[in-house]
Give the backbone structure.
Amino acid sequence: FLSVTTTLKTQRATTFLVAMKATVSKTLRYIPQKKLTVSEPPPEWFGNGPNAEGDKKWTNKNWLKSRFHFSFAEYSNPRNTNFGVLRVMNDDLVQPKRGFGTHPHRNMEIVTYIIQGKLTHQDSMGTSESLGRGSVQFMTAGTGIRHSEKNAEADPLRFIQMWLVPKANGLTPNYGSMCGTKINFDNQWAHIVSSTESDAKTPVKINCEANIKVAVLKEKKSIEFNLSKNRQAYFLAMEGSPIVEGEFGSQKFEQHDAAELYGEEKFKISGPGHVLIVEMDSDGQGGRSDI
């Protein structure tokens, strides 16, 4: 009986280690969407009326469904606070005629990438504009800025909002944007964000040492992403089911799945998928410690 029990324990341990090797390596840590925290706050918290009932345009019962990649709002996890300079990544689904009322920000570089629908922005500097799929808006919150983000349209809105730690506090507030029709991300990388101190020619410049790239890959199409030694990147499968390959093997992703990538490695990313990467210097911390 003891020998059988020992054998079973050994088999279970071996199975566990094999499973771990499939999702965690020196160059890729897979983060399935089930490991993200989902938040659906009451509509009145952000100045909205009651949730609509019977509106066929609504794809979620609550006005907002947010997926938090790092500690944010009511989600507090000391083992998942940031990934290098990337402090916040929220995947927000906002229903028609709803949004975030005017609220303040300070000392953060905020980049928003629109996946679906149209986002309307207004701020205390007098800016007011609406942006659609593939577009980017950014803010240097600096000494302080107030803004609102709303879905004024009849269809749902989905966007990724990222907060990055600036090179210094107390910067002068600034706002800028790029229309998605001005870039080509079909089956190739579109380098949309880089540092103000970088020579890279990108439509958006931020006060932070980081690069953001996006691509829309058709089935069987692939691109490479080379990550140098002492560099790291956060990968997000925004749509589709892309596959990432490297010396570690391969990992299939579904919509909302993410991964921490570490150099030195040459990654191959195959479609179908709409993917985003935030690349930066390694901070030596190793990302999430709860997976």
Residues 1-22 have pLDDT under 50 and may be disordered. Residues 2-23 form the longest helix (22 residues). The two ends are 34 Å apart (CA to CA). The CA atoms of residues 235 and 277 lie 5 Å apart.
